[in-house]
Amino acid sequence: MTRANNEKGRYRMNATNRHLGALLAALAVVVAAGPARAAISAQCPADTDGMDTDGDGNAGNDNVCRHLIASDGYADMADGRLLYVFGFSEILSGEPLDMAVMNHTLSANAPAPTMAFREGQRVYLTLSNAGFMVRPDLFDPHSVHWHGFPNAAPIFDGMPDSTVTIKMDASQPYFYSVVDPGTYLYHCHVEATEHIQMGMVGQLYVQPKQNMLPAGTVLGSFTHRRGQKYGYNDGDGSSRYDVEVALQLDSFDPDFHDASESVQPLPFALMEDRYFLINGRGYPDTVRRGPMPNSFDGQLSQKIDAQVRARRGQRVLLRLSNLSVTEHFTVTLQGIPMHVVGEDARLLRGPTGLDLSYDTTSVTLGGGETADVILDTTGVVPGTYFLYTTNLNFLSNDAEDNGGMMTEVVILG
Q1: Which residues touch 283 (CB under 8 Å, ≥6 apart)?
Q2: If both were cysteines, with which of 59, 219, 226, 397 could 52 make a disulfide (CB 3.0 to 4.6 Å apart)?
Q3: Residue-wise over 35-70: b if at least 16 C-beta within 10 A, else e?
Q4: In 3-state terms, the chain is what percent helix, strand and coil (to 5)?
């Protein structure tokens, strides 16, 4: 066996021994408590106003309903180390709500399910709290905060000082009038540093009404064709794309995660991230296609891969975001031009309409920042290109080099 395989085997064996006692204790608590109360609920009103607010030609489908549930779980890092995480998973339409807590025990996704909407839609999001299976001593409430989003009212913002938070075995509806296109992000805002570090983060973006224009509509010197998509209502086709990929940058401190799992004081002042992630994975797991099960109980806890695939000549919209609580990140892509058309869910235009978009070889994001980057692959030689951080110490999975914050951009002929 290689050194890497030996390390992975050692991590998994130690993890199994370390977690078994905690899990058995948690199960004992659940059994002693008896069946969970059927307190999980959801609100999803029908769209009956007769108005087509998202421009798709259908006046009865503008209300969109999603249902997240908070819990804990596990995720494997690319070197094989198993980390305890907090997170959100999604209760799907038609799933029995009286079984939601049971079905979503240890179901935390890292990162949370991506939420994509169209401008003009009205979103009814329910958040439920299943509690922590491995840490039944914790009674943490949770919230959903759409970072940078103009909310309909403060109560829907998710900030603990201006809204309610959701306790265990309870649910709370949020309402969003989706009026501004662009790339956002979302996270739990209760004990934010802890819960974000533990993995309660997700990707969020809004597609513009310009996507719904009739074929043949003239946008400046550009003519819209059926099926073409845009990052913003740009009025000239400059944010047009063929392929859309959301990539969230993040990082974990394994000592902090271990301390949370083993009921130790949390080392906030000593927090030092050593796993550097794109969509919850380090390289080479970033390019593993499809959902990844964890090595603890086989749940699909890492569902979003990070490989970018396009045909030569296509335009790719990268929706980049950073939700690390400790680091700024700079990413680069050699061999393919990067053109930034939006930042923090705003089209880069001046007050008079002056085009402020720019070409660059790298993009730097602090925590809570986003950027919309167009990759124009016209003339690009087919092959595999690498998008990676220029912070070379972040190109590692803890002590294992040649990993971390890196993924592939595959251009097909």
Answers
A1: 78, 388, 395, 397, 402, 403, 404, 405, 406, 407
A2: 59
A3: ebeebbebeeeebeeeebbbbeeeeeebbbebbbbb
A4: 15, 35, 50
- Rounded alpha-carbon distances, angstroms, from residue 191 to 125, 159, 188, 198, 266: 21, 10, 8, 11, 12
CATH code, residues 3-207+242-412 = 2.60.40.420
Six-digit token string for 291: 């959902």
The CA distance from 7 to 5, in Å, is 5
From CA 257, how far away is CA 376, in angstroms rounded? 40
Tokens of 375: 């990759």
Sheet holding 308-311, edge to edge: 308-311, 406-412, 383-389, 329-333, 362-365
Residue 122 makes CB contacts below 8 A (sequence gap 6+) with: 47, 53, 62, 63, 64, 175, 176, 177, 178
Long-range contacts (CB closer than 8 Å, 24 or more residues apart) made by 390-395: 390/330, 390/331, 390/332, 390/362, 391/327, 391/329, 391/330, 394/251, 394/276, 394/327, 394/329, 395/276, 395/283
- 172-205 pLDDT, tens digit per residue, is 999 999 999 999 999 999 999 999 999 999 999 9
Domain definitions of the chain by residue range: 3-207+242-412
Evaluate the CA torsion angle 203, 209, 210, 212 in order and state its sign. positive
H or E segment at 175?
Answer: strand 171-177
Residues 95/130, Cβ–Cβ less than 8 Å: no
H or E stretch including 330? Answer: strand 329-333
Dihedrals phi, psi of 317, to nearest 5 degrees: -100, 115
Helix 3-33 crosses helix 254-261 at what angle (to 10 degrees)? Answer: 30
- What predicted TM-score, i.e. pTM, was given to this entire model? 0.90
Q: Are 317 and 238 in contact (CB under 8 A)?
A: no
